[in-house]
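Q: Got one fold?
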Amino acid sequence: MLKIQQLIEVTSRYLGALSAVGMLGVGATTPAIAASALASPAAESSSDTAIAQLFYPPADGPRIVAVTGQGRASVTADTAQLLFAFTNQDSDPYDYAIPYPAEEAPPPETLPEPVPITRDSLQAAVAALTALGISAEDIEIVTDPLELGRYRVFGDASLSLDIRQPTPERVAEIQEAVGNAFSNNPNVFVQDFYVQYAIDSCETLENEAYASAIADARLRADAIAAATGVELADPPSVAELPFFGRFYSPCSSEPNIVDQISGGFGGRSYSSQSESEVVIYREVAVTYRIR
C-alpha cells in the first residue's frame, strides 16, 4: 500500500511536470481573492504566501499550444496469480443451517457458531486443482483473514496459485473447479475470486504506451492549431505526468496479488469477460511553440 511520503513525492513530481509545461502558476492564498485568481492569473494578492494553482497559459506569455496525451498498450500476460477468498458464513446469516421459515428465524446472535476454516477444510479445492494438473506444491493456503490495508479484513481463509501462459478458458476452468468443490459444503463458501496478470518484461510495452501518448498529444495539438489557424513548431517540450497508470506496475514474474488488492491498483474481482492481458497506460504533457 502506498505510504503517505510516497504520495507526497508523486504529487510533487506531478506539480513539477505541470509547471514545466506552463500549466501551473502561482496565485493568492486568501479566500477573498481565490476565485478571482483562478479567473485571472494576474490577480494580485495581499498575502505574502502563495500556492500553486492551475490556469491557462497567460495571453502575454510565449505563444504556445499545450496539450496532454494518453497512451495505452496491451499484450498477452505471461503469468497470472489467482486468489480465492473463503468465508465460513453464507451471505445471508438467516440461511445458515436454520430449519425455520425466514419470518420465524431467530435473531443472528442465536445462530450456531460458524465452523472455523482449516487447511483440511480446503483440501477439496486442492484435490480439484491437482485433478487439473496443478501441483499441490504450487498451491498456497492461508487460514487467517486477508489484511487488505490498515482497517480492512477480508475473508476467513484464502488459497492462491500462479499459472504461466494463462488463457481465459484456463482461468474459468480453475474457478469452476474450486466453486464446485464446495457447492454442497455448508461450512465453506467462496467469497470472492481475484486474478492479477503480469508480464516478465515491460520494456517493449512501455515504449508502445509512450508512443501512443505522444501520438495522442500530437493529434490534439494539430486539431487546436487547425481550429485557431496557427502552425506548430517542432520539436515540442515533453514532460511525463506521473498519475495516470503509474501507481501499479504489472512488470513482474512474481506478482503479489494481496498488495495490489490492498492498494486498489492491480488485483481485482475476476470477470468472465476479462482478457488474459496486461495493459499499461502512460500520460504526457506536450507543449508546442507557435511559429
